[in-house]
Amino acid sequence: MAQVTLTNVKKVYFGGVEAVKGVSFDIPDGGFCVLVGPSGCGKSTLLRMVAGLETISSGEVTIGNRVVNQIGPAERDIAMVFQNYALYPHMSVYDNMAYGLRNLGTPKDEIDARVKEAARILAIEALLERRPKQLSGGQRQRVAMGRAIVRKPQVFLFDEPLSNLDAKLRVQMRVEIKKLQRALGVTAIYVTHDQVEAMTLSDKLVVMNGGQVEQIGLPAEVYKKPASKFVATFIGSPPMNILPGTIDGPGIVALGEAILEARDLREDLAAGSPVEVGLRPEDIEIASEGEAGSLPFDVEFIEELGATQLFHGKLAGLPFVMQAATDAISAQAGRLWITVNPDRVHVFDVQTGGRLG
Ligand code: ATP
């Protein structure tokens, strides 16, 4: 069993920087957990504490049934894949992959079998005699993965493993990592600041901000019901529109003159209270001109994305973006009338940024 559990884990660096401020969650055996958040939010520090590369200031990390706080990285039964691959330049691909096993005193035949098996899985059998400098970025990344696989660890740890690859290769490797993790059934923790990677890879998404967890959930849950304005604007691309509004009555918010229905809005909010209203660009629907309940959107310019278009302009006088399929509307600047499904209207507290509905 390789469930990973973090209980009130904190990290205070020398000099007093509180990088991780008491984080608790668990990853079931075979789960894929992605830690996502902006630069400096503490995600690498958290991963490095699980890896044993950083001491834990307080709290507890458990891998399987063992508390590992005092256990060195080599004894934790984990394998880590880094952003810079960390391959030995003077060694062949084969030796890079065999290195860790040789250090553990694994018999030669078994090393050979494991390296060849990993090379087959990763389709790098033809590269085993090459040196890292004779490889492309994607091939190097595969070797780094191969080095992790041969160890047959209980947990894979990934620290932004794709950030040095070009956009196309990133997408390809992302799919390969997910397939590989599924096939091997290994528990994985993956750090990234890329929200697309986070959404597509995870079955448990942990959004971090300022050393704390903002939200934990299935990626679709986090997308549909972001717990805060921070999460709402961090997850989703293009980012959610945030507009100042007021409570107009039960389940109703006002944006200037216009009003919008919002499902599951908290009922204890006084009419007239200021709020922030979040509308995702992809949740906007086109209405017919002047239709009851529709809002006027003045389109200023249009960006062509191929399958869809981004309409930039002003809603109730404020900057606003809508995403729509190319053939849904004749693309031109001017006034459009829009509506939003009440399930897709997000409302946040002005002071705390917390979700109100
Ligand atoms: P990035 O995406 O930029 O790598 P991150 O979310 O992984 O960011 P961390 O590297 O975990 O963030 O850093 C969290 C905080 O801890 C930052 O404020 C950083 O400056 C600080 N920090 C990181 N390493 C150290 C260190 N060795 N000594 C002191 N402060 C550190």
Automatic annotation (TrEMBL):
Main location: membrane
InterPro entries attached to this UniProt entry: AAA+_ATPase, ABC_transporter-like_ATP-bd, ABC_transporter-like_CS, ABC_transpr_MalK-like, ABC_transpr_MalK/UgpC-like, Mo/tungstate-bd_C_term_dom, NA-bd_OB-fold, OB_MalK-like
Cellular component per GO, a single term: ATP-binding cassette (ABC) transporter complex, substrate-binding subunit-containing
ABC transporter domain sequence ranges: 4-235
Cellular localisation: Cell inner membrane
Entry's Gene Ontology BP terms: carbohydrate transport; glycerol-3-phosphate transmembrane transport; glycerophosphodiester transmembrane transport
Membrane topology type: Peripheral membrane protein
SUPFAM superfamilies, sorted: MOP-like (SSF50331), P-loop containing nucleoside triphosphate hydrolases (SSF52540)
One GO MF term: ATP binding
Keyword annotations from UniProtKB, A to Z: ATP-binding, Cell inner membrane, Cell membrane, Membrane, Nucleotide-binding, Sugar transport, Translocase, Transport
Family: Belongs to the ABC transporter superfamily.
Protein name per Swiss-Prot or TrEMBL: sn-glycerol-3-phosphate ABC transporter ATP-binding protein UgpC
Gene: ugpC
